[in-house]
Amino acid sequence: MKILLLAALTLAFPALAQNAPPAASKPVSAIETRDGQLSVHLEKTRLPNGFEVIFVEDHRLPLVAFNLWIHAGPRNEGPGQTGFAHLFEHLMFAGSKHLPRGVADRVIDAVGGTDSNGSTDFDRTNYYFTLPSNQLELGLWLQSDQLGYMIDEIDPVALANQQDVVRNERRQNWDERPYGVADEAMFHALFPAEHPYRAAIIGSHADIQGIQLKDVYAFAKRYYRPNNATLVLAGDFDPKVARRLVEKYYGPLKAGEPVPPVKVQQPVLHGETHLDVSDRVELSRLAIGWQTPAFYAEGDAALDVTANILGGGRASRLYQLLVRDKQLAQSVNVYQQSLSLGSVFFIEVVARPGHTPAELQPLVDAELKRLATTPPSQAELDRARASIRANALAAMERVGGLADLVNGYNQLAGDPDFLAKDIARYTALTPESVRAAAARWLPVDARVVEYTVPGEKHLAPDVPTPPPPTAAAAAKAERVHVNADEKWRSEQPRAGAAPAVRLPAAERFQLANGLTVIHVERPGLPLVSASLVVRAGQDANPSNVPGLAGFTAAMLREGTATRSSTQIAEQLADLGLSFGADAGKESASLSLSGLKASFAGGLALVADMVQHPAFAPEEIERRRAARLAALAEQRVQPPAVAQIVAARMLYGPNSPLGTNPLGDEAALKLIDASVLRQFWSQRYRPDQAALIVTGDIDAAELRALAEAQFGAWARPATPPLASGAWQQPNPARLVFVNKPGAAQTAISVVAPGPKAGDPQASSFDVMNDALGGLFTSRINQQLREVKGYTYSVVSGFARNRNTGAFVVQGEVRSDVTGAALKDLFEQLNGMVAEPMEREEFERARNAELLSLPGSFSTNADVAQAYAGNWVLGLPDAYLVDLPRRVEGVSAISAFQAALRGVRPDAMIVIAVGDRAQVLPQLQAFGRVPLIEVDDAGALLAAPAAEVAASPAR
Predict the structure, then answer these.
(1) Rounded CA gap, 691 and 685, in Å?
(2) What single-letter DSSP state applies at residue 428?
(3) How far apart are CA 598 and CA 578, in angstroms?
(4) Same domain (yes/no): 245, 314
(5) What CA–CA distances, in Å, run from 55 to 16, 42, 58, 113, 384?
């Protein structure tokens, strides 16, 4: 993802109010204005071994982000080693000399860490987590041991396990993802065989499986050295203390040989290369790619703006032309993927059913020609700037995002304080410079054009997964040591004084018409988020019109009595606001986020949408076509099918929650203006709605805005309608959906669960963290880290106002479906067999309790939490009191919650995969009855198999 920022140069950033500020001499926010320009206050230092550290002191929240960049990625891979950098990212979490495998993850959970992960891009690999501010030394201890001593512990078992995990990730995110094979083919056409950007970042199955221990050791010695890494600390710390600790933990690490720069000539395309790709998709896609200037080179910023003008949202040219006006396309995506060795520019257009890439291409080319010959309007340029500005500022709300911004500037621009210069790139643009960039870099005679059409998916020949190495083989394996052992590193540092866990409190008032307004003031960055929620969710759907709630919510942005759909899209874009409208199980919501200066205008738009929808016939037809196409897309995505079938099994086919939220083809044909207006008039009423606003806005401002925009919203005289949500779950069974050729099996395991407001709610959450909610949970550790069956399997409770559910979901390798289910149920049964041991319980409880500040770190986080709280009928104090309730959970109460909420004998198992591979494994698994349904959950003519009766497990 590209890191950009464009902001008004005179913005000021006052201190955050929700935490007591430090000494007066300390800056509360790292974002400041310097000489009239926006800047990040930071200090950069380099240790004698070459290790770079950048300190970004920011006291908005009691959190510290640890963001480590290794300056190596796929651009540094050797021939036949695609995916090496990404595999190495996984190996960094496989343990180190002083932190045995899994310990670091458990420690991070136990102290309330959030945002813990790693990622690999073409030019770098990064490792990051955010901890409470009293754990500064702990974070440095953890990351320094990973960097300096990970290589000591890598053995054949760890390597083989992570090869399995990464190959599962490839199956999930490339082989099985719609258009994944097409995306890979596009890069193969854009780059020659010897170029490091040619292969997918994740690599090929053959190369991943072929990596050996000696290759791992060589890569570590060359690239994972302190002189090839940069750490950014961002957050609530004392720089003097941090500098001393950095020297303690990173100073002794040995520098490696200097890493020579990668010098590769950017390819020059000659003529148009055409590709035809078939894939298991329902909708065809047109994709076009060009070679463009590298990160921060001349033309890079202009092409960012070009991408926004062409396809940067609903106001963009191609969206308006292809999706809205001609209705030939389901979606448009245009972006400049900026990279250090040369960038690529993409246009991707997914066609509607019955239309082809060949129809789309001439229209796209005509728009490209128009932009290349006629400058865009000043309004279009300003709109693009507003979007870039708002998105970038929003990314800086979290200290982790701020740290990544600084690290990106440091590597890719050579200056961590590049913010003002980045801003200048966009302020200097003119309509003519944008036109010139489009003409120069996006010619029709030097590009790759790709048509992806429905058909057979062509994957490389399968590479067998070898048997796992034995413990004896691991013991005999060569071990490599780069840094001398230091015994003091084996002792976990003590934490500093723990800050009190406090969540932002809200104020509430009500307008005369019954509209509830909930306000949380959070000054700091000049940003505001809002959510208008209405009791008009899926549970309100009429029995004969499933999907009506979602259709109605989507129609609100498609025109009002005084604004057209296009005008709404343009005004939102002009204001630089992100906006969404959708319906969930028990509510519909209109969400808004962006700069404070734009908030009043955005709220006026929301008020107009919710109070004066037009429901114009032509817009209804557009929305109907889009939802029919979305239904077609769902059918080829096993995880989506598994969720749809699971809902039908869990709630019953007669419950509104047991139907597809999109509806079905028959219902969508019934929806017209009268149906929509009736649902809107009955359900969209102020006494059944709440406006939640968080951010840099005070109570007086908000009250005035709410009265002005919503005070005239009429409250009907009739009483509110009741919802139709209920549960009629099926008994325990195994449900199978056939998806021929699927490389993975999508699994959902569901059962009824507790409702919202349950007095044991926090006990359920703590217990589930240990069972399947955390990376270190029993389910994920067994199925991913021990067995290598999956990339991810998670569990959780869905507590609604009137219903509740326990859900486990994920994807597993097809050939181990039965074994994965066996292991999964062993973990479920284990959780209800006896209470957790003290260490596991305390880790899960602390993970739930101490991570709360990090979970409420943005305006949108807070708005979403209070909106959900209101929908569930809970008081505002319920959130403020959450830390106390979590702290009160005991091992016994968590065990009691497991006995109530995790009932393996009552669970319904849904498996979506290839019949030839999966069905025999399901038959052997033994859960009865075993039935086969279609992708909507309807029973097929006969059961999938007759299985001898045996106890459900």
Answers:
(1) 12
(2) T
(3) 11
(4) no
(5) 20, 5, 9, 20, 32
The string of pLDDT tens digits covering residues 417-458 is 998 899 889 999 999 999 999 999 999 999 999 999 999 999
pLDDT at 3: 35
CATH number at residue 522: 3.30.830.10
**SS3 (DSSP) at 370:** helix
Query: Cα(393)–Cα(206) distance, rounded to whole angstroms?
Result: 41
More confident residue, 11 or 819: 819
**Range(s) of the domain holding residue 764:** 733-932
**CA dist., res. 84 & res. 587, Å (int):** 45
User: Is 941 part of a structural domain of the chain?
Assistant: no
The arrangement of strands across the sheet holding 733-738 comes to 790-799, 804-813, 744-752, 908-913, 733-738, 930-932
pLDDT above 60 (res 281): yes
Give the phi and the psi of residue 275 in degrees, each rounded to 5.
-120, 140
Q: Are 58 and 242 in contact (CB under 8 A)?
A: no
- In the predicted structure, residue 486 carries a pLDDT above the cut 80: yes
Is 170 found in the same domain as 220? yes
Strand partners, 745: 812
Tokens, residue 419: 């913010």
The verdict on 765 and 895 lying in the same domain is: yes
Question: For residues 949 and 28, which has the higher predicted lDDT (pLDDT)?
Answer: 28
Domain for residue 26, yes or no? no
Q: pLDDT tier at 248 (50, 70, 90 boundaries)?
A: very high
Q: Are residues 603 and 541 in the same domain?
A: yes
Q: Is 478 domain-assigned? A: no
Same domain, 279 and 392: yes
What is the 8-class DSSP label of residue 950? Answer: -
User: Per DSSP, what are the bridge partners of residue 530?
Assistant: 592, 693
Please give the C-alpha separations between residue 789 and each of 508, 665, 739, 814, 912, in angstroms, as whole numbers: 48, 36, 19, 9, 16
What average pLDDT does this structure show over 533-560?
Answer: 97
* pLDDT > 70 in the chain, percent: 95
The whole-angstrom separation of Cα 193 and Cα 431 is: 37
Q: Note the pTM of the prediction, 2 decimals.
A: 0.92
Q: d(Cα 413, Cα 4) in Å, to the nearest integer? A: 12
DSSP states of 727-761 as a string? --PPPSEEEEEE-TT-SEEEEEEEEE-PPTT-TTH
R_g (Cα) of the chain, nearest Å: 28
Q: Are residues 240 and 280 in the same domain?
A: no
The residue to which tokens 């305390």 are assigned: 842
Residue pair 231/258 in contact by the 8 Å Cβ criterion: no
User: Could you give the CA distance from residue 33 to residue 13 in angstroms, rounded to a whole number?
Assistant: 8
- 35 exposure class (CB count in 10 Å sphere: 0-12, 13-18, 19+): exposed
> Are residues 119 and 178 located together in one domain of the fold?
yes
Q: What does 514-531 look like in DSSP terms, one character per residue? A: S-EEEEEE--SSSEEEEE
Percent of the chain with pLDDT over 90: 85
Task: Report yes or no on 107 lying in a domain.
Answer: yes
H/E stretch holding 271:
strand 271-279
350 and 246, same domain (yes or no): no
Q: Which pLDDT band, with edges at 50, 70 and 90, does 221 fall under? A: very high
Taking residues 804-810, report their average pLDDT.
97
Paired with 578 in beta bridges are 593
How many domains, in total, are found in the chain? 4
Report how far Cα 290 is from the mean position of its chain's Cα atoms: 27
The pLDDT value given to residue 213: 92
| Structural contact between residues 384 and 431, judged by C-beta atoms closer than 8 angstroms | no
CA-to-CA separations, 659 to 407, 584, 739, 746, in angstroms, rounded = 46, 12, 20, 19
Q: What's the chain's length in residues?
A: 953
Cα dist. 463→164, 167, 209, 727 in Å? 11, 10, 8, 45
Backbone angles phi and psi of 43, in degrees to 5: -130, 135
Q: Are strands 229-235 and 52-57 parallel, antiparallel or unpaired?
A: parallel
